[in-house]
Amino acid sequence: MRAGPVAVAALLGLNGCSLAPHYNRPSTPTPADAYKEAGEWKVATPADTAPRGPWWSVFQEPELDRLEAEVTNANQSLRAALAQLEEARAQTRIARSNYFPTLDAGASANRERVSINSPSYVAGKSATSNLYTLGGNLSYEADVFGRVRNTVANARYSEPNSPRTTTRCAGSTSSRNSSTRRSWTTRARWR
User: Fold this and answer.
1) What is the average per-residue pLDDT within 38-54?
2) Per residue in 140-184, pLDDT tens?
3) Is residue 42 part of a domain?
4) Is 42 exposed, middle or buried (0-12, 13-18, 19+ CB in 10 A)?
5) For 66, which of 81, 104, 106, 135 is 20 to 30 Å away at the CA?
6) Phi, psi dihedrals of residue 44, rounded to the nearest 5°
7) Residue 52 forms part of a structural domain
8) How much is the CA Rg of the chain, to the nearest whole Å?
9) Is 151 part of any domain?
10) How far is CA 93 from each of CA 88, 96, 98, rounded to the nearest angstrom?
11) Range of 67's domain?
12) Is 23 domain-assigned?
């Protein structure tokens, strides 16, 4: 019996192993009836990633619409949040790339001239020589103990938090701008 097929079978068997502990979300006890208000009670369903739209348009002020567009375009916090979202998505793509083989290739060319006074110079042979080198490397890491899977899972876990941050940042900026504009307008009317 040959050792090659046995080794391949053993590697394929170990490929399903993962040393990382499986995460089980802890159970949360149901709140007692005493905490429910009298009337219709329902569990909260946050919609942080839902688009809010131009809610300030209810004020019907063109100046406010212009200011909102200006603030959104110039908001550095929003730009930073969008950059963090792009970074989280890029990290997930980088982590997923470890599932595939890596191919490296390289080439080099050297031209060298040996001095006539050098001890390595051979009379009758050209003093100039060319050296061309072409190389490559193909490698693949079998995910035997789940390192790649766990890296991808970790990258995916950090990704969903970023859109919520971006949406909250945009909403916060819009509400701050609108409330400031409304207070200025109100003060101007009372004067």
Assistant:
1) 70
2) 988 888 888 888 988 888 776 655 655 665 555 555 555 555 554
3) no
4) exposed
5) 81
6) -65, 140
7) no
8) 32
9) yes
10) 9, 5, 9
11) 58-190
12) no
129 bridge partner residues: 112
User: Phi first, then psi: what are they for 89, rounded to 5°?
Assistant: -70, -35
- Phi then psi for residue 94, to 5 deg, are -65, -45
Burial pattern 154-185, b for ≥16 Cβ within 10 A else e, equals ebeeebeebbebbbebbeebbeebbeebeeee
pLDDT tens digit sequence for 66-106: 887 787 777 787 788 788 888 888 999 999 999 999 999 99
Counted domains in the chain: 1
Structure-block tokens of residue 176: 């701050």
The C-alpha atoms of residue 41 and residue 34 are separated, in whole angstroms, by: 12
Determine the angle formed by the axes of helices 62-74 and 161-190, rounding to 10 degrees: 140
pLDDT tens sequence across 124-142: 888 888 999 999 999 998 8
